[in-house]
C-alpha cells in the first residue's frame, strides 16, 4: 500500500504491473478490495491501479468534504502525481459516477471508459432512486452501519454458495465511518451528468448484470445517449458483478481492451 497527497487528503492506492493503465474505482462503502479478482488477471498485461476513494478504506476520512465532483478531482490529481497521461477508467457503482464525471470534465485523460452497474444520473432515477435515498437513509439512522452492511451484503450475495463473498463484503462495509458513508451516499444521490452525457466521445463499455438493482433497460437507455458505447450483459449476476461473476466480467473487459 502507498499513500499519495491529493487536494487536502491522502489516498491509499496500490500499483501493479506494466503497460497501458487501468484505474479501477470501487463502489460506495467499499474499498479497493472490490477488485481482488481483476488485479491478478489484468496486471499480466496492464499497469493496474486501485485506490480507496476519500472517506473509504485506508484513505483520509474528511468531516465534510464529499461528493462525486471532489472525488473526481482526487482521481485527476492522483493521475497527475503518478505522471499518467492516459488511462482506462473502470468504475463500479459509485465508481462509475466518478468515471463518468472524469470523462465529462477531463476527457483528455481517458483512453477508454468502462461503466459497471452504474448510471449517469443518480439524481434522476425516478422511483428507484427516491426509494433508495429514503429507505437507506432511514435504515442507516435507525439501525446503524453494521446492520446496513449485513443487509447490503445479503442483497448482493444471497445464494448459499456466495456466503464467503457475502461475509468478506460485509466485513469491509461495516468498517465504514458512519458520517463518511452517509455524506458519500447523499452527495452521490445528488449527482448527475444531465445533458453532458451527449458530449462524451470516449470509447465506452457499459457492463450490466441481468439481476442488478436497476434493469438492463435502464442501461440501454443511457447507452443510446453516448456516441461511442457498447453494452454487455452478464448473466446470473447481481450488483457486485466484479465479485460474483469475475471470470465473465474479466473476459468482457479483456475483449474490449484488445480492440483498443
UniProtKB/TrEMBL annotation:
Domain AB hydrolase-1 span(s) in chain numbering: 20-244
Molecular function via GO: hydrolase activity
Keywords, in A-Z order: Hydrolase
NAD recorded as keyword: no
The keyword Hydrolase appears for this protein: yes
Pfam families reported in the protein's UniProt record: Abhydrolase_1
Gene3D superfamilies for the chain: alpha/beta hydrolase
SUPFAM superfamilies linked to this entry: alpha/beta-Hydrolases
InterPro entries documented for this protein: AB_hydrolase_1, AB_hydrolase_fold, AB_hydrolase_sf
Highest taxon above the source species: Bacteria
Protein name, per record: Alpha/beta fold hydrolase
Annotated source species: Psychroserpens luteus
